[in-house]
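Researcher: Here's a chain I'd like modeled. Treat it as a single chain, no partners, no ligands.
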Amino acid sequence: GETALHRAVDVGSTEIVKLLIGVSSDVNATNADGDTVLHKAALRNNIDIIELLVNAKVSVGAVNNNGETALHVSSASAESDPASFCLNCTDFINIGLESGTTEKQRSAEYGPCAIVQYLIKAGGDINLEDRYGNTPLTIAVTNNNLMLAHILINGGGDVNKVVSSNTHQGLMQSLDLSLLWVALYRKFHRTEMAKLLIQHGADINVSNEDRTTVLMLAVDQLDNVKLLLEHGASANIQSDDGNTALMRALKQHFDNIAKTLLAAEADVNIRNKRGENALLIAAKSGCTEMVKLLIQAGADPLSSTNMGNTGLSLAANKDIAELFVQAGADVNLRNVHGQTPLHCAVKKSKTDVFKLLLAHGANVNMKDFYGNTPLIIADHVLQSDIILSLIRAKADVNIQNKKGKTALMYATNFTHAIFCRRYKLKIDGINVRDTLLKSGADVNLKDNTGRTALMYNCQEVQEASDEYDKLVKYGADLEAEDYHGRTVLVQVLLTDGMTFMAGNLLNMGANPVLKAAYRNILMKPSDGFFMDFERNIFLRLFVCNGVVNMVYFNSYFPMILDTCVELCLCYGGHDLLRYVLANCYISNKDLSFIRLKNYAVMDTSQEELSPDQKKRIALLQRAACQPWPLANLAFIAVSTMMGESPEREDRIQNSQLPNPLKDMLMFKTKVARTTVEEWSTLPLCFEA
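Model: Modeled as a single isolated chain. Structure tokens:
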């Protein structure tokens, strides 16, 4: 809803505007945005129309929907041009109509600045805020328009106006800021604007909501720092976090500015809320020269943070650490976590500082309050050169922390393995586990849960499986149990995606007989059991634990195999089938399968059959065609009745059967424990 007067202003037609005013058009009518015709004229810098409207008693203080007056609009339309300040602003401001210069002439030469001055004279409120809290002076400072700022300040603009950073793109956080703060913000560096504000009374030590002063803000610009110091800025004011301008300069590595602040008598021993002083911050930031200067300026070289970290613990490089050692710093002083400078150097991988501390007698076996030695921490951060240096310095490789863990356990855990896989289990060409083992690491120490290094290794990735052999060669006990009674074999079987490792452990001699509480894990569906290359190993595991009919699901098999014998016939070897038959590891369903499939008349001379397939079929022919001893048939029948694990064991133990028969039914006989290599020679009950 714009009026005809709005449209006339839009097209810049002075005559039509004059005509409409003459016929009593409402000069204060607004459009949908709340703009009056004066807002429109100010936006287009049309001094002729503005003069007509003012003479027609337009409301100079009218605000639009954004809370802006015509003065705001005109200030915003004035382009930033720092060079324009080279004009004599004072002369411009003092030019008056009485000297014969008209507003129209001034507008033609100086643009929006002249219009702003005209609107001020016409009664515009120079300190009125829009809906975002901006005054015309705020806009001038933000746009770095020096001439406009000079006009507004001389017209009564508040140089200490606080603005919200929410309304200024590019400002730091959501805080209330002074105009001087805005002028010197690091993205803008409006030095000339800052000078203008200071000359007209801007508070030099003003701070924002978190007590950050303008001097703190300016620590990345030497000229601005000098300007503020020359006008009385205090170098010792602290922000809410306790930091001074000197601390900020040191954190950002502005050494020249830090020197300037020192020359301005900045207090070197003020502490922030973390207990850090300028010296500790310089040490942490790696400012070697500043550390020297600060010590010379009276900073305490033995000071520490609230956490007890001294300059030696924080030293970023060897030269800084040397300065603190020369000043008498204790190389074994603990912080609140019990960590010495050596712990801290290892944790941050500061090798040069670490070597310096060793050279000055740092204790390599000192524990922090969590029981960690520098060696255990070095294993965390994967620093091979530090690990080797610690071992050469007689670090005890078997010290356990409060969790009972040793360096070897950390070297075999899952996270370490993932990292090492990229480097073929080596760091800088060094296998950390080998180094620890050769240095006397005890492979059978247990942590607080009863786990050994071998049990940590069982959580590793497949590429690290050769570490089992390595640990076993160094004496790792395959039968060691954690405090839940779980061996490494049980832990592997309980870990999803790790059952392939069970075959490796069984081949190394792990006892295949599981405790009764863990036999039920063999009954869970798993793609890991009975893999092609380890089928016989897993069959032995099942037999020795009395699992009669294996539950087996595998997406790679195109058919459903109903019986153990059928599985052996289709996918096992001759030796595997012989082992099954020798142990009567079959059910009545297996016997029915043997008799119903006509193996007695099957032709084994078919060319497509492999030699092993022919041996399997021949073995089944004998099993099907020759009578089984009555005792074996009875055994099979009873075994079938006893059902599956884990209920099977309870049923057998609670039965009235003789103990030898119970052992047979639980496959605890010598035949069941026969190694895979002996399966081909096992006697069968139906053979002569």
